User: What shape does this take?
Amino acid sequence: MARKHSKYAADDARPSEDETPVVLAPCWLCGRPTGKTIVWHHPVPKSRGGRDVVPMHPICQQTVTANFTNSELERHGMDVTGLLANDAVSKFVAWVAKKDPDFTAATTKKQR
Assistant: This one.
């Protein structure tokens, strides 16, 4: 159904894209600026009572879920340094640091 009234007041001008600065949130895992695609990841899984979300690259989120179980993620909580202590994750972060923010690639399957 169409709106009866405009989303903007009659005297307000619509904000142009030139006036609005684009603020790119850094990725929670690797610290690089996020690109066009942002995944809002629950550091503590929702199944374990997690409510907080953090911005991540899709490839970084895939790496976290491939290397940690939900119970391990629950133990680490919002502390990213515990995840970076894992050898596989620290090697990944060092490798992806030189990539473009919108870089994507296939990741390995869960190694449990």
